[in-house]
Amino acid sequence: MAEEENGSLEEGKGKKKPPVLLIIIAVVALLLIAAIAIFAMVLTSSDEPKAGGGAAKSKGATQMGEGSGRVVDVANIGPIYDMDDFTVNLLNENGKRYLRTKLNLELDSEDLLSEVERKVPVIRDYVIQVLSSKRVEEITTRDGKERVKDELVKVLNTLLIDGQVKNVYFITFVIQ
Question: Model-level pTM?
Answer without folding.
Answer: 0.61
